């Protein structure tokens, strides 16, 4: 018997309608999925490999430019952290704050540093490079050195001896004999050593030097200051009245790993004969110098100068610029200054207990920003404030403002 097919027609119609609805539903789902905002990574941090046992916790906190909290994460060493959000919510610039919690002598220490105007797509790579193994440099012997009849200068580390391989020794002038002083030192003979640069900043304000290349184990070597020579060239600069002065210079030879600390001057300003002019010397033997000058000026600011390169043409310690603070609050800091030429600033706040002996808790927060940009610093996440109840953000007091004038100079206004 032949089966008629017409009775299948209703079922076929139902099947077609069902398939049509499924396709329509699938099409709507695809359309809905395509309309969903896509997530994108806007900031990446590669953490360091160092394992500091004093660090309890480490956090990275991200705020928008108007201070709203965007995200925060804890991290360990050798991690890669990514911060992401939907495309339309990614800020062009944002502020990144690191929080490091340590324990020092049984008390919590909180160190925060905020970097402003971080741009979308930034990667902070703090991964470690492999350091070369230190070169063995055993001591082969010793000799005794004395330098006599040096014009006395009672407030400086005026005597310095360097062996060219990183070993340097500075001594304070302590004994005066009729306006002159003598230095006596026992010097190590190192396997990789060759000669010694002996430099003196004397009581007349002069820098002189002597290279010692003849010595034997157990020898007693005596030099008179008249044997010391003047440097090949000098650079004179004025020094304003100060509370403390530190100045040091290291010379580097071409095509050599040798480096000689040429002199180190440390002068507290409360002595009766502070320096008002420095005239450091330079040698043609060295092509590159590392110069560090830090001076706490009596006017209430600190000037820092760091130079790595050939002998500088000049060193000029500026007069104190005008600097006035209108609001010391970290979330609404305001100031005015007549400093025109600076590239960035770092403002610091701190908290410490009234009695640091019974309570060593402390917090320090610095905020870095470029010239002309006054950042809005947002609040820390509430659960971090609860996790670290001794962080005392509300008790932070203004500490100082550091203005970087250029790659070599900065001025620090202390509270």
Overview of this structure, please?
The chain is built from 2 helices and 29 strands. It has 415 residues and is mainly beta. It folds into 2 domains: 39-130 and 321-415, no CATH class; 139-309, no CATH class. The strands form 7 sheets. It has a 12-stranded mixed sheet, with no helix packed on it. The chain has a 5-stranded antiparallel sheet with strand order 10-9-12-13-15, with no helix packed on it. Strand 2 (55-64) and strand 3 (69-74) form a beta hairpin. The chain is elongated. It starts with 8 loop residues before the first helix and ends with a strand. The relative contact order is 0.12. Residues 1-17 have low confidence and may be disordered.
What does the secondary structure layout of this molecule look like, with pairings?
Blueprint: H1 9-35, E1 39-46, E2 55-64, E3 69-74, E4 80-86, E5 93-104, E6 107-119, E7 122-125, E8 139-151, E9 159-162, E10 168-171, E11 180-190, E12 196-201, E13 207-212, E14 220-224, E15 229-230, E16 233-234, E17 237-238, E18 242-252, E19 259-268, E20 277-278, E21 281-282, E22 288-297, E23 301-309, E24 323-327, E25 334-337, E26 344-352, E27 362-370, H2 382-387, E28 397-404, E29 409-414
Parallel strand pairs: 1-7, 6-27, 8-14
Antiparallel strand pairs: 1-4, 2-3, 2-5, 5-6, 8-11, 9-10, 9-12, 12-13, 13-15, 16-21, 17-20, 18-19, 18-22, 22-23, 23-29, 24-25, 26-27, 26-28, 28-29
């Amino acid at each position: 018997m032949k089966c008629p097919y017409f009775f299948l027609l209703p079922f076929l119609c139902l099947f077609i309608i069902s398939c049509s609805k499924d396709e329509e539903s699938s099409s709507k789902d695809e359309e809905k999925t395509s309309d969903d905002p896509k997530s994108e990574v806007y900031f990446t941090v590669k953490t360091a490999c160092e394992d500091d046992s004093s660090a309890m916790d480490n956090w990275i906190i991200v705020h928008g430019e108007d201070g709203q909290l965007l995200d925060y994460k804890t991290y360990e060493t050798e991690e890669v952290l990514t911060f992401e959000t939907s495309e339309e919510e990614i800020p062009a610039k944002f502020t990144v704050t690191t929080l490091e919690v340590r324990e020092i002598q049984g008390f919590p220490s909180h160190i925060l540093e905020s970097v402003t105007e971080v741009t979308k797509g930034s990667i902070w790579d703090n991964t470690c490079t492999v350091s070369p193994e230190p070169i063995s440099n055993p001591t082969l012997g010793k000799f005794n050195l004395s330098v006599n009849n040096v014009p006395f200068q009672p407030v400086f580390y005026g005597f310095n001896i360097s062996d060219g391989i990183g070993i340097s020794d500075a001594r304070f002038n302590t004994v005066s004999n009729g306006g002159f002083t003598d230095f006596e030192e026992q010097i190590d003979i190192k396997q990789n050593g060759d000669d010694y640069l002996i430099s003196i900043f004397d009581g007349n304000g002069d820098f002189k030097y002597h290279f010692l290349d003849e010595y034997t184990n157990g020898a007693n070597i005596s030099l008179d200051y008249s044997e010391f020579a003047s440097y090949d060239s000098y650079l004179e600069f004025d020094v304003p009245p100060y509370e403390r002065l530190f100045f040091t210079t290291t010379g580097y030879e071409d095509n050599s790993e040798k480096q000689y600390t040429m002199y180190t001057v440390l002068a507290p300003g409360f002595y009766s004969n502070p320096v008002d002019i420095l005239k450091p010397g330079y040698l043609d033997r060295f092509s590159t110098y590392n110069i560090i000058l830090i001076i706490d000026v009596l006017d209430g600011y600190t000037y820092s100068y760091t130079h790595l390169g050939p002998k500088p043409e000049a060193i000029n310690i500026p007069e104190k610029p005008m600097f006035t603070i209108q609001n010391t609050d970290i979330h609404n800091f305001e100031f005015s200054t007549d400093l025109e030429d600076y590239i960035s600033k770092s403002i610091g706040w701190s908290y410490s207990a009234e009695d640091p002996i019974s309570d060593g808790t402390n917090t320090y927060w610095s905020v870095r920003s470029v010239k002309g940009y006054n950042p809005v610093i947002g609040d820390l996440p509430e659960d971090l404030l609860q996790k670290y109840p001794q962080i005392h953000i509300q008790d932070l007091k203004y500490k100082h403002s550091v203005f970087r004038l250029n790659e070599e100079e900065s001025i620090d206004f202390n509270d």
